[in-house]
């Protein structure tokens, strides 16, 4: 079986293979991106930060005026059902994406009050990122397109419309990079297409302030908690491109990537800023602390265990 086929999905409780899972063309998630979601990874059979993802999911629901029809516990039961019913290899880590769409309805932008929301859960083998992204680092570029502002489509809505990020990612690939570093309309750095970003500038660890417009990433929060526990000073500030001229380290964070060093950033004027291969002192230390943090999380969150990793 190929890696891409390892997995299963549940659509409103009906479990099938990834290829056979279907939703209606009249679903508002499909028609309008009228949906919200979360992505969790498992680590040794435990879904990481289950509570934190649920809280962020509830916040997305609030931001799009959606009243969730199920509880956190019911979601956990739904996810477990997939692992119980489908024979999935137990020696690997999984990617779990849960999505709620506002449901099926007439083709009409206005969501009618009688819609029934759909819950879709996708479980698949965790993708492994290119080895060079960790050994050397990922290359970023600053695209022309700006990140949605908080007042247009709040980046804290983790919703089913990622066109803003997709366009940023596509143009950064055209510029010869692997991913993008998006600015807001005011020229402040926000985040990458699906990760938060940190810099070390003059020995200060910094990440863009929430009001720059970025998703409040759970890996970012974990890094901040580690820093607090280890006494590493860090702050959220407005960061513009002039400031990163003086940065000597940079890394991105996300649930599926963990902490990934940034090798270089191609600026809008073509200038390239380079960072140490494999990350500098702060980055390497945080990567190692994050590993311990995950091991501790797994050891103290056995209640969430989905399957025993062999
Ligand atoms: C736009 C965006 N920013 C940041 C992140 C990182 O968030 P997390 O660390 O919770 O995965 C993601 C993850 O999906 C994202 O889509």
Give a summary of the structure in a few sentences.
This protein is an alpha+beta fold. 28% of the residues lie in helices and 26% in strands.
Tell me the layout of helices and strands.
Blueprint: E1 7-11, E2 14-16, H1 28-32, E3 35-43, E4 46-47, H2 50-63, H3 72-85, E5 94-101, E6 118-125, H4 131-135, E7 138-141, H5 163-174, E8 179-180, E9 182-183, E10 189-191, E11 196-201, E12 204-208, H6 218-230, E13 234-237, H7 241-244, E14 247-254, E15 258-266, E16 272-274, H8 281-300
Parallel strand pairs: 7-8, 7-15, 12-13
Antiparallel strand pairs: 1-2, 1-6, 3-4, 3-5, 5-6, 9-10, 11-12, 11-14, 14-15, 15-16
Helix pairs in contact: 6-8
The structure holds pyridoxal-5'-phosphate.
DSSP strand (E) fraction?
25-35%
Radius of gyration from CA coordinates: 20 Å
CATH architecture of the largest domain: Alpha-Beta Barrel
Number-wise, the strands total 16
Enter the CATH topology name of the largest domain: D-amino Acid Aminotransferase, Chain A, domain 2
Bound molecules: pyridoxal-5'-phosphate
Helix count equals 8
Q: Pick out the low-confidence regions.
A: none
Cα shape: globular
Number of domains: 2
